[in-house]
């Protein structure tokens, strides 16, 4: 065999090795990227993070309207809880699917007079933890309590009215009067809130 042929064969082998190595590296990289994407998808379904922030108004009562926050917590508690693959993936981790019931139903529309400018926040993947955070923040005002429905299911809870809640009739423009819950609010606070949210206080 000539020296030129030996050199050619050697170069060919080296090129072949490099090509195979690159192919293997590309396949490995592709598999790693696919596994990473799959892991991210599963993780987001197993343990998604939720942010709940209620900012008190600038009025003297520094009231907080809880309707948007409590509605979001309730809605998020059913996210990835359709009973299909999403829920099964969630069960791999710590994801819990809750069923919350407001007692009475209008309770989630509550206005709370915090007399505090600090925002109320909860950052968690667990909606029960979020509800407990808001319950604890208003514990001294006795606005609401989160009570397990042990006779129904392990993840069923009632959000029940506390002793500090009073109901007042508010009428918004072009709407019928509606009972609205207030907590920790004096009569002057209630009147001020009605003016701020463009409603007429009827009692």
What does this 3D model show about the protein?
With about 200 residues, this protein is α+β, with helices and mostly antiparallel strands. The chain is built from five helices and ten strands, in the order H-E-E-H-H-E-E-E-H-E-E-E-E-H-E. The protein has helices spanning about 5-45, 65-75, 85-90, 125-135, 185-195, and strands at about 50-55, 65, 100-105, 110-115, 120-125, 145-150, 155-160, 165-170, 180-185, 200. Strands 2-4-9-8-10 form a five-stranded mixed β-sheet. Strands 3-7-6 form a three-stranded mixed β-sheet, with helices on one face. A hairpin with a 7-residue loop joins strand 6 and strand 7. Helix 1 (about 5-45) packs across helix 3.
Distance between the termini: 109 Å
Mean residue pLDDT: 82
Strand order of the largest sheet: 2-4-9-8-10
- Radius of gyration over alpha carbons? 29 Å
Q: How many strands, which pairing sense, and closed or not: the largest β-sheet?
A: 5 strands, mixed
Low-confidence spans: pLDDT under 50, at least 5 residues?
none
Order of helices and strands: HEEHHEEEHEEEEHE
Shape: elongated
Total of helices: 5
**What is the count of β-strands?**
10
β-strand percent reads: 15-25%
How does the helix and strand content classify structurally? alpha+beta
Estimate the helix proportion, in percent.
40-55%
